[in-house]
Design a protein that fits this description.
The strands form four sheets. A six-stranded mixed sheet has the order 6-7-8-3-9-10. The protein starts with 33 loop residues before the first strand and ends with a helix. With 394 residues, it is of the alpha/beta class. Helices cover 30% and strands 22% of the residues. The chain is globular, with a radius of gyration of 25 Å. It binds adenosine-5'-triphosphate. Adenosine-5'-triphosphate binds next to helix 1. Its EC number is 7.6.2.9. Keywords: ATP-binding, Nucleotide-binding, Transport. It is an enzyme of class 7 (translocase). Belongs to the ABC transporter superfamily.
């Protein structure tokens, strides 16, 4: 936790007045429905630059879809076609089944929240008035709009007293949260997010990513998110579209598929060589078979040992390691132990298991049950061979 930037989002379903549904594009979200569709879209700017080339892509209702690719590959151009900030040279972009060119841009934009890098807040309006702007334009009274804005501040994890400040009096991460609150103010079913977190430092950025995921759990928006950071794309996207120069779609797939089977050399180099490691996050560890490990309980007599022994408390929770070569010497006290590594909770993903194995001084990753009790240990080799099996089977 780093100051207010990491306050957690307290989306309170019981509050009633923060509307969590989606309005504007006709009825409740239909699972699997395609809310945004690009069909054979091409964009050539007047100077001849082809930013997007014959691209077709559909975005499912209620999902986060990420557009990722190197600078200049057409991500922003593609995204801005959704709310008609840019019109395609050919092809169609439709939202909820209607070609966006058949919609009034102002009305279309009221149903599409837009979050950009550095938040783009109005500098001379307070935080609360920034958030209240769109609802007031849509006809809400100032009082109702401000009341709703206070709830949104809470929803994005900001304390109420920040509402009176001006944007320059907030940290970068706080400004981004206000940007998200402002985009949510009209309760739009669609959110466009263009590199929203790239202007903040990596720690704050991770916090914002986590909170977007938490917020999405509550709100179920259809989010189109642009980034050039493949890690961000993989973390946030239920589906990820990798674009390459000239606005070509190189691959469109769930992150796991992208990491497992990159479509070509470009995607391979873009997702990076350590994709095997990243991919571990998507493989569950149900087939991992932890082996028994010799233990010793805190407060009990220290045994002579020629192997690593896991020290546990009265609830079998791991407290550290007793190294090989330890001589029998009185009762076991916590301060004499070698600190343990991270713990892997049973049924978690393989990345957690590998982290546990790699971070343990014994090389033995400790697996615990939901109550925190040790159930056994795994080695890094065991985790990686499971990954090989998974690779071979998919
Ligand atoms: N108004 C414009 N006129 C001419 N060319 C443009 C215009 N806007 C963008 N371009 C060019 O179109 C291409 C795609 O730009 P776009 O901003 O969509 O890419 P991007 O992937 O979002 O890049 P970045 O990650 O750097 O923001 C680039 O070559 C860019 O220089």
């Amino acid at each position: 936790m780093v100051g207010a930037d990491h306050a957690s989002i307290s989306a309170d379903r019981g509050k009633g007045t923060v509307r969590l549904g989606s309005a504007g594009f006709g009825g409740p979200a239909r699972e699997g429905a395609r809310l945004i569709e690009f069909q054979s879209v091409r964009k050539q700017y007047p100077n001849g630059t082809v930013a997007v080339e014959e691209l077709s892509l559909s975005v499912e209702t209620g999902t986060i879809t990420v557009l990722v690719g190197p600078s200049g590959c057409g991500k922003t151009t593609l995204m801005r076609m959704v709310n008609r900030m840019i019109d395609p040279s050919s092809g169609t972009v439709s939202v909820d089944g209607t070609d966006v060119r058949d919609r009034d841009p102002a009305q279309l934009r009221r149903n599409i929240g837009y979050v950009i890098q550095q938040a783009g807040l109005f500098p001379h309006r307070t935080v609360l008035d920034n958030i209240a702007t769109v609802p007031m334009l849509a006809g809400q009274t100032r009082r109702a709009a401000r009341e709703h804005s206070r709830e949104l501040l809470d929803l994005v994890g900001l304390p109420a007293d920040l509402g009176k400040r001006y944007p320059a009096q907030l940290s970068g991460g706080q400004q981004q949260r206000v940007g998200v609150a402002r985009a949510l103010a009209a309760d739009p079913p669609v959110l466009l997010m263009d590199e929203p977190f790239s202007a903040v430092d990596p720690v704050v950025r991770e916090g914002l990513q986590d909170e977007l995921l938490r917020l999405q759990d509550e709100l179920d928006k259809t989010v189109l998110f642009v980034t050039h950071d493949i890690d961000e794309a993989i973390k946030l996207g239920e589906k990820v579209a990798v674009l390459r120069q000239g606005g070509h779609l190189a691959q469109y797939a769930p992150p796991d598929d992208l990491l497992a089977s990159p479509a070509d050399d470009f995607v391979t180099s873009f997702v990076g060589r350590d994709r095997g490691y990243r991919r571990l996050s998507f493989v569950d560890s149900a087939r991992l078979r932890p082996k028994p490990v010799p233990t010793v309980r805190l407060g009990e007599e220290v045994p002579s040992t020629d192997q690593w022994r896991l020290a546990v408390d009265e609830g079998d929770r791991p407290r550290g390691w007793l190294p090989p070569g330890t001589d029998s010497d009185g009762d076991l006290a916590e301060h004499t132990l070698v600190a343990g590594g991270s713990l892997h909770v049973e049924q978690g993903n393989l990345r957690g298991a590998l982290d546990a194995a790699l971070s343990a001084p014994s090389g033995l990753g400790v697996v615990v049950n939901a109550d925190g009790g040790a159930v056994g240990v795994v080695t890094a080799d065991e985790v990686l061979s499971l990954l090989d099996d998974h690779r071979a089977a998919t």
